[in-house]
Design a protein that fits this description.
CATH architecture: 2-Layer Sandwich
Family: Belongs to the RutC family.
Radius of gyration: 12 Å
Protein name: YjgF-like protein
Order of helices and strands: HEHEE
CATH superfamily: RutC-like
Distance between the termini: 15 Å
GO molecular function: deaminase activity
Number of domains: 1
InterPro entries: RutC-like_sf, YjgF/YER057c/UK114
Organism: Coleophoma cylindrospora
CATH class: Alpha Beta
Largest sheet: 3 strands, mixed
Strand order of the largest sheet: 2-1-3
Length: 67
């Protein structure tokens, strides 16, 4: 995430909204432990369980940041 945001001219510190899509809500605790390392000052976020994600991944994260 950091590198993608950097390439767009912004950073993790400028994230204002996160949407998380998961096909396996039982993995949210594990996701949250990693998420908290990146976002100690948690931006607003929405978590949504879906039936399936492309390429059979467990998570898709959509980030909105100020550029």
């Amino acid at each position: 995430m950091s590198e993608i945001l950097k390439a767009a001219g912004t950073s993790l510190e400028r994230v204002v909204k996160i949407n998380i899509f998961t096909s396996d809500f039982s993995k949210m605790a594990e996701f949250n432990s990693v998420f908290n390392d990146y976002f100690p000052q948690k931006p607003p976020r929405t978590s949504v369980q879906v039936t399936k994600l492309p390429l059979d991944v467990s998570f898709e994260v959509d980030i909105v940041a100020i550029v």
